[in-house]
Amino acid sequence: MTELSLAAFAIDCPDPRALADFYGRLLGWAVDEDSTDDWVELVDPRGGAPLAFQRDPEYRPPTWPGNEVPQMMHLDIRVRTLDEGHERAISAGATQLPQPPDRLDANFRVYADPVGHPFCMCAVQS
Q1: What would the mean pLDDT of 23-41 be, rounded to a whole number?
Q2: The domain that contains 100 carries what CATH number?
Q3: Is the peptide bond before 61 cis (omega within 30 degrees of 0)?
Q4: What GO molecular functions are on record for this protein (predicted)?
Q5: Contact predicate 31/44, CB 8 Å
């Protein structure tokens, strides 16, 4: 059997360049120079699969924590501490979302990117 590998993780959005810029600030990753207006990739400096953004003119943001428009995916981003993760997310342009009531003491915090995709900043567990 042929060994498979992840080629990219693609996120739908109305403006791929703008959302890639946000995640580039958040992660410290650079935009691939072969990107186009409709498909922008961020290069993982550690050599993993790129994070890609594709134009979807019909994009509708998720309504998390409600599910009128469900989140189709979310990213978990590892940080040393929740405070560090919060500062990084807010300074990149994220919005903090309500913490699930049953997870107030969890090692993650929930945020939304500029077009509404939820993502979590997850503190390393010791």
Answers
A1: 97
A2: 3.10.180.10
A3: no
A4: lyase activity
A5: no
Whose structure tokens read 């693609």?
10
User: Containing domain of residue 124, as a range?
Assistant: 66-126
Contacts of 83 (CB under 8 A, 6+ apart): none
Q: Does the predicted TM-score (pTM) go above 0.85?
A: yes
Any idea which residue has 């060994």 for tokens?
3
In angstroms, rounded to a whole number, what is the distance separating the alpha carbons of residues 14 and 108? 27
Would 2 be classed as within a structural domain? no
pLDDT at 126 > cutoff 60: no
Single-letter code of the amino acid located at 85: G
CATH number for the domain including 24?
A: 3.30.720.120
One domain, residues 53 and 83: no
